[in-house]
User: Fold this.
Amino acid sequence: MRSVKSSVRSWKPGGMRLAILFVILLQARAVWPQEPAEPRLDKEFDKQEKIYRSRGADVPGGYVTNRGLSDYAELLPKGFCDTLGKLGSSDRWLDIGAGQAQAMLDYYAPEPDAAPAQKCGRSSAKARAVAVSIEDRQTDKWREQAASLGHDRLRYLSGKRLRDYSAEELGKFQIITDVFGGFSYTEHLSQFVDKVLSLLEVGGSFYTLVPGVHLENGKDKLGILYLTELEDAAGRPEKVCSWLKKTTCVQVTCESKSDWKRPTELINIRKVCSDVSVPRLKLWEFEAGYPPSRRFQLEP
Ligand SMILES: C[S@@+](CC[C@H](N)C(=O)[O-])C[C@H]1O[C@@H](n2cnc3c(N)ncnc32)[C@H](O)[C@@H]1O
Assistant:
């Protein structure tokens, strides 16, 4: 019989590496549970619903729903304002998670009313705009403007999530935006991206951002509290941008913002052909918030 001593001595470096890998994997599993805890998730989903339904003084200070077009210009990847400005009057713009849809109101504001800094998307022809929000946050100003322009030009849809709309209900779009909307809030991230891309015309662009992520350029500051974390099927950390780049029929560009309060990725996804396939993610953790914190794992 071989003694423990002799078997330790006879270990090859390769065996040692395997053992170390095994310990690392065990530790990774200790951080991420084997199965998402359903009752705990349900509790967090209820809390999230309360945030969506909050009104008046109950709306949490961090749940901002009135960003204007100049905020969109700052928060979305470069190229957004130019693309918006090039749209013709029969083109269509979808804003997912529009809140009060102030950005669309600004877009339709007559030239003299537009603030000087607000030159984003200026053109004489205006695209038809559709705002989607879970909860109805239409303002009187929106209702007036939509009534005067006609609901064919300015439309506000609420009462359900993006995934609950059929292709016929929404139609197709040349440009889709999402500023702290579904992309940052959904618990079904891969299905969300799949839906967005199905609504995009070939040649169209999706502009969004995601805060609190591992940056593509790797320049994250230390001590960051991440909001959206991904791991691959083997349990190794995966970046949001590298996951998105595995999607077929798209060109993904990421602008890493390492000097922002939270490391943030500004993302542009251009659809280049119709056979889109988004690698599936499974939700592992969700903690309500604005935005919520989420952990996903790539399905094998
Ligand atoms: C923090 S507000 C942002 C509003 C606006 N974009 C802004 O920047 O002022 C979040 C918005 O995303 C919406 N939202 C979140 N998840 C969504 C989903 N899956 N489908 C549609 N809307 C969603 C909410 O209903 C709300 O309108």
User: Anything to note?
Assistant: Residues 52, 63-67, 96-99, 132-135, 161-162, 179-182, 185-186 surround S-adenosylmethionine (CB under 6 Å). The chain is about 30% helix and 25% strand. Residues 1-16, 18-30 have pLDDT under 50 and may be disordered. The CA atoms of residues 57 and 114 lie 29 Å apart.
